[in-house]
Amino acid sequence: MVERALRAQGWLERTILDPFGASPSLAMEAARAGSAVLVASANPVLRFLLRYRAQPLARQHLQAALARLASSTKDGDRLERFLRDLYRTLCSRCGASVSARQYIWERESHQPILKEYLCPSCGHKAMEATSGVDRGRARSFGTRGLHYAMALEKLAPLGDPYREHAAAALDVYPPRALYALVTLMAKVEQLAFEPPLRQAAQALLLYAMDTCNALWAYPEGRQRPRQLSLSPHYREYNFWLALEQAVEEWSGEGGGVALQAWSEGQAMPKGTITLFAGSIRELVDRGALPEDLVVVTALPRPNQAFWTLCALWASWLWGRSAAAHIRVALRRRRYDWGWHARALRGALAHLQAALAEGTPLMAFMPEAEPGFVYAGLVGMDAAGFALRGWAVRAHERQALFLGSSAPLPEGHAGLPHEKSLRDAARKCLLARGEPTPFLLLQGAVVAEEAAGRRLAGLLSGEDPNPLQRLASQIHAVLASKPIVNLSQAADPEAGLYWLSDGQGAAELLADRVEGMILDLLRNKEAADHEEMLAELYRAFVGELIPDWRLVAACLTSYATRAAPRAPWQLRPEDQADARRADIREVRDLLAELGRRLGFEVEGETPIIWRNPGGEPAYSFRVQETAQMDWLFSSPRPASHLVIPGGRSALLLQKARRDPRLRSWLRERSRVIKFRHVRRLALEPGLTFDTFPQRLALDPPEHQDPQLPLL
Hints:
By secondary structure, the protein is an alpha/beta fold. Among the domains are: about 60-195 and about 210-245, no CATH class; about 525-570, no CATH class; about 575-695, no CATH class. Helix content is about 45%, strand content about 15%. The protein contains 27 helices and 26 strands. The strands form 7 sheets. Strands 11-12-2-1-13-14-16-15 form an 8-stranded mixed β-sheet, sandwiched between helices. Strands 22-23-24-25-26 form a 5-stranded mixed β-sheet. Helix 16 packs across helix 18. It is globular, with a radius of gyration of 31 Å.
């Protein structure tokens, strides 16, 4: 994504500045594309991740560090065996002693209730209830023993103003995990590893510190925690097994990106990441920014859990001084979006003051959500970066904003006018021509305000919650006519929004995307996937960016490819001439069938069957595509859609996007496939009376338990 963006903007020859360093992948992609990349990062954990993703640690060094730890001694035993024994249990099948893979704790009872293990003696693999012995062993480590005191001392000694907060943060580690961690940290210091084994040992420990804290919920899986709060049930992972897994995690392939530490006056070669160990404020104060730079970054998302744990990990691995920039995270327990907007404004305003007017900024927003969009756009506008372009993918929860350094406007303090918000929402809905999810509609509204520089003044007053007031204002606008929430959800940020009248709306966006993809496939014998997507995304920008599920459904409806990266090839039956012949045949069959059953037949689009008395009984719209705009734009739309069987999955995807279409499709015989028309035309016993039942017997190709429509 980053390389494509840089190439599209013509920025590959310029120096890329990432002022936050929140995404190691962003810097690596830009460097691989051939750009000189300057990253400012005050977080030593993120710097470590970037350094050893760009230049991966050698597997032999990781294995050697693990082997030295394993063979060292603890209380007269090998350290590996000692640590495995911390998690010892008995196999319920053969009674053999086995080291459990993990224990599942119940927060309320403060004890492990489940254990998972694989018995090496009999091969029994189980997730089963813990025994009294298991629970007693877990309690034996206590909560405030010597290991706890040693871990706390490394974070904040007596008299340190952060000690109370560090003690609270330590509670995210089960006592047994903290005991194993302190034992390993002492052993690493005792063994005095030399580089590169020292870096390998630190990498192993860092992975285990992340894996073995109690923030990973059960059974939800490995969703990244954002708050320092334990789930009702959480995992306690075997510390030694985490070290073994770390070898695989760190010895990845695909690095090979040159990286150097920043020093004043140093050249920044193309294809190289230059890493500044400090904040963007400190870098700017050094007066060290190159003249040809562009700002490309992933906006950091507030994450109390990660930031607090980074302060712990950095202090344990590299000492309290290394964590000085981020120790404040130990104290803060809540990061609201207003705070985040001000933090972004502070960092970006300091940078903007050092940039030439017009310097571009591109901000990626993974994990986009409404509050993040408010904070990002308000923070950028208030910092002196005017919005020039934007894109939001609601289903993928991704956003991208393009701006440039510009003087702050005057006279725009306070909230935007409700009329401008309502006009922006209506403009977005009319342009898309279809119901729209809140995240995308909200993004369009806020982006319109940012483009008009009407957000910068929100942070200039004394209001402690300006973003909350802006959100409430937008919620009120979207709850008033002519805008309606089709799902009638209680949560204004759920459901799909549309207009009560819909007059003046463009053709359905899904239909336009389908039409363009079909044209691209028919104009090329073999359509390259990347080139086709590039053309598609040049045509559909801003609020029109199609989500990937729709694009994929369109492609697979009309084309195939021999391998995942092979070109797309239009199916022979979807060639234009073949489909024109199909449509002529199906129309003729429907006309002939209608007359045979005693109906009066007229028209082509739609084909109407009238009862002998002249009243319309059936109307059929025959088409090769799954385009449905006619359903909402025609005063008397056809009652049945006749399409090739290959359009079923695409029509189903469109129905998932549009509740109006879902409502129309609830009657099973709404959609008829070409082959079923052919089958009915050949059925000798078909009569006027049996036709409705036979019409509804078209077997569906695609089963969907939530949407059994086709």
